[in-house]
UniProtKB/TrEMBL annotation:
<keyword id="KW-1003">Cell membrane</keyword>
<feature type="transmembrane region" description="Helical">
    <location>
        <begin position="308"/>
        <end position="330"/>
    </location>
</feature>
<feature type="domain" description="SSD">
    <location>
        <begin position="239"/>
        <end position="361"/>
    </location>
</feature>
<feature type="transmembrane region" description="Helical">
    <location>
        <begin position="393"/>
        <end position="413"/>
    </location>
</feature>
<keyword id="KW-0472">Membrane</keyword>
<feature type="transmembrane region" description="Helical">
    <location>
        <begin position="721"/>
        <end position="750"/>
    </location>
</feature>
<dbReference type="InterPro" id="IPR050545">
    <property type="entry name" value="Mycobact_MmpL"/>
</dbReference>
<feature type="transmembrane region" description="Helical">
    <location>
        <begin position="236"/>
        <end position="260"/>
    </location>
</feature>
<feature type="transmembrane region" description="Helical">
    <location>
        <begin position="336"/>
        <end position="362"/>
    </location>
</feature>
<dbReference type="InterPro" id="IPR000731">
    <property type="entry name" value="SSD"/>
</dbReference>
<feature type="transmembrane region" description="Helical">
    <location>
        <begin position="649"/>
        <end position="670"/>
    </location>
</feature>
<keyword id="KW-0812">Transmembrane</keyword>
<dbReference type="GO" id="GO:0005886">
    <property type="term" value="C:plasma membrane"/>
</dbReference>
<protein>
    <recommendedName>
        <fullName>SSD domain-containing protein</fullName>
    </recommendedName>
</protein>
<feature type="transmembrane region" description="Helical">
    <location>
        <begin position="266"/>
        <end position="287"/>
    </location>
</feature>
<feature type="transmembrane region" description="Helical">
    <location>
        <begin position="691"/>
        <end position="715"/>
    </location>
</feature>
<dbReference type="InterPro" id="IPR004869">
    <property type="entry name" value="MMPL_dom"/>
</dbReference>
């Protein structure tokens, strides 16, 4: 079949597949599901899901903080009237199941057969303000929870429907913000926090940043391609190939029903940058052969033949780098690794089908600079090669010193994460969350499951006393600023039965008194707080609380102390406990981060080792290839340690991705060296020739990779920022190692045997 006809058929087939991919991409949706970041398959996750089914999720709430006008306290009648109006407005909204507010908080009093709820605050009776405020500050559970300690702010807490999705959540938040504006409350006097708030902001920013990053990457890469090839097709063809591979990759992801989340949002940018490598190697070799005077067909065949092997190996190693992320138990990271790895392989397919087809159908390009007498790049790379070899002892010595310092610095990296890790310190959302930590109980939820021994109830006196002991520890030693449990319920009922007096807010003194209380508990069992803290039959209870977001390292220390206390000070024959909750699950991610990273890196290194062994049948050459690619990884780890960047969900992916990408250029280099050694008896001359042949493509692809990843530093998400910065630095250090350490190591360690020389392959040019 004539080549032009084959090219037309190839374009037709690829066009149909691209149209199919476009159909699936049109169905893609953005998603930020907080629960996706829990460790999948973890027994604690199964336990929490069952626990949440009985008591509800611990993060289905929104906190609305309102600051009193300057110079006033929250007890001013006009301010309380606004709070009450907002409370009523929120309570009437769809998807709101319960509202707690200072103006609805009441002191229940039992008289006769009825329960009377006496409000703590009376906005319409200014003369009672002094007594109201005094009572509030004496009542447990109000100050630090609904009213700030300095009486300058209040919180309205509203529970929402379980796992409320983004559209109804956004509508609810928009309605609240509109009502706040209608009441004349400026934005700097109110604060919103909660999972639903973070969910809304994350998804909106994901959409915006995806557009910004892609635009920046296209502009940057277009400029670099133009500077490199100085022809319109040298810019357009790589862009067509890579944009096509992005469309295919997203299409495959959509076909599998996966949405774009915080991690998979990186796929288009990652692929746009990484996918350029094969096209640049092909076009660079194609242009080189044209410059040496070869025909268009011959130049293309040589470019495909020489680039095919190296590009195939590099696509394999890069995809493996992404596939190793599938060792993670965190679903977004798993999906990101899987579909980016698939997309990298699809890019290789398009580079060797779509690109050749387009080059065949285009006329022979008119090169801007005559190439018959050689290349300007040859002179630059030749001088660099001579300089590196002349200063080889300095290169090795400096590398060793930098490596030693990096290893020492890398040893200081800590594994630590917080609930809003991916938001920068000055982000408005994070500042709002910090407001609640500063003025109120905090935003980090705490959950402890209470299971009485067989035959007992959470309302047994011994169980209640043990639970109270746990509460005291959590408030004094653990750091909970707010706590509620079945103990809270019984104390509240006792107080209500004794005229609402604060002195009566305590556990009963005897079983007989408890029995009298339990006969009255049925008056309160329909109240939401009862259903949220104990099962109707008393067979299980919930101890819940809130605290500042102290980070996973500190939380781990606190949990170790708590477990020791529960083991030594709580009678397990009376009540058994188990730590659970969403915050506990997120902390557990850190336990697997190091293991997943080491596993991923080990798989990556093993695969590269096997590839080099198969290619060269030499252990020495394997070491030669690994060193220039591990050195940049260790240097960047040192940078992380020196900068105080913690290892967390987002930064844990950096090393496996960076290694998989960085090794690409090495694979291209050694695959070309393998070909050159078939016709060149001198190892020195073969290395020099390979250096000149591969050098331009190595430098150009590395510049594009570094430039493309550098666009991510403009992200408002810290995780994305560090992915861009640290992978960019790894690749930058990688190209330096490639052009300095690699040729030195090959000449020092590789034992080339001239007897293996075979018949010459077709001319490589130059």
């Amino acid at each position: 079949m004539p080549l032009r006809k084959l090219a037309h058929l190839t374009l037709l087939a690829l066009g149909l597949l691209t149209a199919l991919a476009g159909f699936f991409v049109a169905q893609l949706r953005f998603n930020y599901n907080f629960n996706d970041f829990y460790p999948a398959g973890d027994p604690d996750l199964d336990y929490y899901e069952q626990y949440a089914g009985r008591f509800g999720n611990d993060n289905d709430y929104v906190l609305l903080g309102l600051e009193a006008p300057a110079g006033q306290t929250v007890f001013e009648p006009r301010f309380l009237t606004k709070v009450d109006s907002l409370t009523r407005f929120i309570r009437a909204r769809r998807h709101v199941t319960q509202v707690s507010s200072p103006t609805t908080a009441s002191n229940p009093v039992v008289e006769g057969l009825g329960v009377f709820n006496v409000p703590y605050l009376h906005p319409q009776e200014p003369e009672r303000r002094a007594t109201d405020s005094a009572l509030v500050y004496r009542t447990p559970g109000l100050v630090g929870n609904l009213i700030s300690r300095d009486a300058r702010a209040v919180t309205i807490l509203f529970q929402t429907s379980p796992n409320l999705s983004k559209p109804p959540g956004d509508s609810l938040l928009a309605a609240v913000r509109t009502e706040l504006a209608r009441q004349g409350i400026p934005e700097n006097e109110y604060h919103l926090a909660g999972k639903m708030v973070a969910q809304s902001v994350f998804v909106d920013r994901l959409q915006m940043e995806l557009l910004v990053f892609m635009s920046l990457s296209v502009v940057l890469v277009t400029g670099l391609l133009w500077l490199t090839f100085r022809t319109w097709w040298g810019v357009v063809l790589p862009l067509v190939v890579v944009l096509g591979s992005i469309l295919w990759g997203l299409g495959v992801m959509s076909a599998f029903g996966v949405s774009i989340d915080l991690m998979t949002a990186l796929l288009p940018v990652m692929l746009f940058v990484v996918g350029m490598s094969d096209t640049i190697h092909i076009i660079t070799r194609y242009v080189t052969e044209l410059g040496y005077g070869a025909s268009k067909k011959a130049s293309l065949l040589i470019a495909l033949k020489e680039s095919g092997f190296g590009s195939g190996l590099s696509a394999l190693t890069t995809s493996i780098g992404f596939f190793t992320l599938m060792t993670s138990t965190i679903r977004p990271i798993y999906n990101f690794g899987l579909f980016t790895g698939i997309a990298v392989l699809l890019t290789f397919v398009l580079s060797f089908t779509l690109l050749p087809a387009m080059l065949l159908l285009l006329g022979k390009p008119q090169l801007r600079v005559p190439r018959e007498t050689g290349h300007s790049w040859d002179g630059v790379l030749g001088r660099l090669f001579r300089t590196v070899l002349a200063r080889r002892h300095w290169v090795v010595a400096i590398s060793a010193v930098v490596l030693g310092l990096s290893v020492a610095s890398a040893s200081t990296i800590r594994i630590n994460s917080a609930l809003l890790d991916d938001l920068s310190q000055n982000d408005p959302v994070k500042l709002d969350f910090k407001f609640f930590e500063r003025q109120f109980a905090g935003v980090r939820p705490f959950e402890l499951d209470l299971k009485p021994a067989p035959g007992r109830s959470v309302y047994d006196l011994n169980v209640l006393r043990q639970t109270e002991q746990i509460e005291n520890y959590l408030q004094k030693d653990y750091g909970l600023n707010f706590v509620a449990s079945p103990v809270t319920l019984i104390k509240s009922v006792r107080k209500a039965l004794n005229g609402g007096l604060l002195a009566e807010y305590r556990l009963p003194d005897s079983e007989a008194e408890l029995a009298r209380l339990m006969r009255k508990v049925k008056l309160f069992r329909k109240k939401p707080e009862f259903r949220a803290l104990a099962l109707p039959d008393g067979s299980e209870g919930r101890l819940t609380g809130r605290m500042p977001d102290v980070g996973s390292v500190r939380a781990g220390q606190l949990n170790t102390g708590l477990r020791r206390f529960l083991r030594t000070s709580v009678d397990s024959t009376v009540v058994q406990t188990r730590l659970t909750g969403s915050a506990n699950l997120i902390d557990k991610n850190n336990e697997t981060l190091t293991r997943n990273m080491i596993t991923g890196m080990s798989i990556d290194i093993l695969m590269v080792t096997l590839i080099v062994l198969l290619l060269f049948r030499s252990v020495r050459m394997t070491v030669v290839v690994l060193i220039p690619n591990l050195v940049p990884i260790l240097i960047v780890a040192g940078v992380m340690g020196a900068a105080g960047v913690s290892m967390k969900v987002s930064t844990s992916i950096i090393f496996t991705i960076a290694f998989g990408i960085a090794v690409d250029d090495t694979i291209h280099f050694i695959s070309k060296l393998k070909l050159v050694l078939l016709q060149e008896p001198s190892l020195f001359k073969a290395v020099r020739k390979t250096y000149l042949m591969a050098g331009k493509a190595v430098i150009v692809t590395s510049l594009i990779l570094v430039g493309g990843f550098s666009t991510l530093i403009f992200s408002s998400f810290d995780g994305t920022f560090y992915v861009g910065l640290l992978i960019g630095l790894t690749l930058l250090f990688g190209v330096v190692a490639e052009l300095t350490l690699l040729p030195i190591l090959i000449l020092w360690f590789y034992r080339h045997k001239p007897k293996e020389i075979r018949q010459p392959v077709p001319a490589l040019g130059g």
